User: What shape does this take?
Amino acid sequence: MEATKQETVTLIVTRQNDPSSAPYEETFEVPYRENMNVISALMEIRRNPVNAEGKDTTPIYWDMNCLEEVCGACSMVINGEPRQSCAALIDKLEQPIRLEPMSTFPIVRDLAVDRSQMFDSLKKVKAWVPIDGTYDLGPGPRMPEKKRQWAYELSKCMTCGVCLEACPNVNDKSDFIGPAPISQVRLFNSHPTGAMNKGERLEALMGEGGIGSCGNSQNCVQVCPKGIPLTTSIAEMNRATNIQSFKNFFGSDTNY
Assistant: This one.
């Protein structure tokens, strides 16, 4: 049923009081307004925490920040698909709307999860450009325009975790770091200054839980809210790690 043909919006929310408690479902009905998104529906429940049975309940707990698909904080599973709730318009969703937390990450409460493992993976691959910030280094080296254009696309990653949620190889039985950190290795290795640590990043990808754990399901590129070419990055890093392994074997410092 389309939301525009009714006065209320029905949401079935998977809730959990804390990491150790059992999850349960709770149904809510909120007044329909034109141009609503999932966040505005959750805000309505927070304003008036009463479920569909008319019983008082606790406000739903979830993460959000920018409300314009930039910060990546409001990721959740909406009608079975991991995505940003700020960009999920009620009019375009089948009702009842089912909201669940991402299952890849440990639950904090209700729809909020702990994405620390993703940030730890970014640390593992050194997803930054290390420079000495104690003095002015002057203007940095310029990048060729063609490289800058595709590097900019990779820089759009907002660490939302949606690609990790969609990836079947990221689960509690695997230590696979996932698509986003792999793509960030490609980004920082392409930077003129970041390339100084190229070998270290590739070594990290060649280690446990690295690129060898990718099953090439290509789910990640389909769900990325920023349209980042994640599978292209994975393919490029496959090639780069193969070259790095040859360099390691022959003890060569030759640049390829």
User: Anything to note?
Assistant: The two ends are 57 Å apart (CA to CA). The chain has a mean pLDDT of 93. The beta strands are 8-15, 24-31, 75-78, 81-84, 97-100, 107-109, 112-113. Residues 163 and 220 are 4 Å apart (CA to CA).
